[in-house]
Amino acid sequence: MGRVAFIGAGPGAADLVTLRGARLLAQADVVLADALIDAEFRTLAPQARWIEVGKRGFRASTSQPRINALLRRAARSHALVVRLKGGDPSLFGRLDEELETLAAAGIDCEVVPGVSAALAAAADTRKPLTRRGRARSVAFSTAMTRDGALQARRGADSEVFYMAGRQLGALGRALRDAGWPADTAVSVVSRAGCADGLHSSHRVDDLARAALLHAGRPTVVIVGAAAEPLAAAAPAAAPTLAAAPDSIPLDRI
Amino acid sequence: MGRVAFIGAGPGAADLVTLRGARLLAQADVVLADALIDAEFRTLAPQARWIEVGKRGFRASTSQPRINALLRRAARSHALVVRLKGGDPSLFGRLDEELETLAAAGIDCEVVPGVSAALAAAADTRKPLTRRGRARSVAFSTAMTRDGALQARRGADSEVFYMAGRQLGALGRALRDAGWPADTAVSVVSRAGCADGLHSSHRVDDLARAALLHAGRPTVVIVGAAAEPLAAAAPAAAPTLAAAPDSIPLDRI
Question: What residue of B is the nearest CA neighbor of A31?
């Protein structure tokens, strides 16, 4: 009987996996990978048999019962099975169902966390999810339920919606219904952390305009305080401040 | 003029940094590191000058203006300065202030995301932050404001409180005041993701009992649906199910 390591792949780019995840991948006999995982990841486990389990948003794909069964079967005939999941396994990854099936089968497992897409989106856009004073809480949820219903919330200073790319116009309306003012800042980021990542800035009432740019790409939508640009924008936007004297005395470093 | 790379170190253990972060560390001339960063990280950048900037929770430490000034000064005389921040830079890392000071000084920078402590806590305890149906949203905030006031919230199915180790008894009372029932599950995890990580399970009304175990350690507190154990617990707890037949037909893998 082998064991299963759930590894958070991060938002897409292979170099956003953790060292711990990469080391386990290098030892894996079998890798069961989400379809959204970049092909580049295979270079981290060239010795392993790779099985794409085909979860890709809400598209018809490998069923969860079948993934669960594949996991159990693989662990019975291999020493180390890696279940490579997009983002972080504990956030929107249906890890609960896979852990339960392994526990019921008495199969040992471990979970290696990863970079969730919202964190990569904040890094790409240089818009921190929390900020002193005005952005003290941030909530994560999915914009669409598994039965395809759209949902929006306003329960924190900022709200991040995963799997939001499909219905941005409808999400904008749902955000109004949830109490967000029309002019609330919205940041939309697709393929966060990847070389082909894209981001755009909107308001709740013109969120529909983001649809074309991010069509067909894994997308997170950030609403509220964390979507606002910082007081000082990118360096190019503040050239007149570049020569400002540093008035704080310092030791030389 | 050099550039600054903000790198999320993850929750503590050096092998929870990303490959991208490790590669930049290996090229760094100077590393400005939070005090909570494990000494083991130095092996990832032995060539660099390491400066501990001494942020450690709310303890008296290097002031933020001084950190900002050190960053600007270092970038003026070195090609690559790494600002190594615990967890993920965009969550509770005061990244906003450091980005603004660099932007104002015209210094180029990038942000490499990291594993935030809540994700490592969920991995360690095998208690996913989101779960099908009953744990659809999760919010992150700090239990204490920067002026030392305690705050609790109930705005999502699960709430994660960072920097919560100091006043767990008071936090339990604040959670009651925020509307959480007395028997709500609470998971407390300190040094998540590290070899010396500890976790304990509580209810809102006995959260004070966690104080001794986690004293003096970086701690996250998870409240609500995400703190409940999964239906099937760890393998050892369900031995009678270990031989359950696999009724789903499968190709051999």
Answer: B253
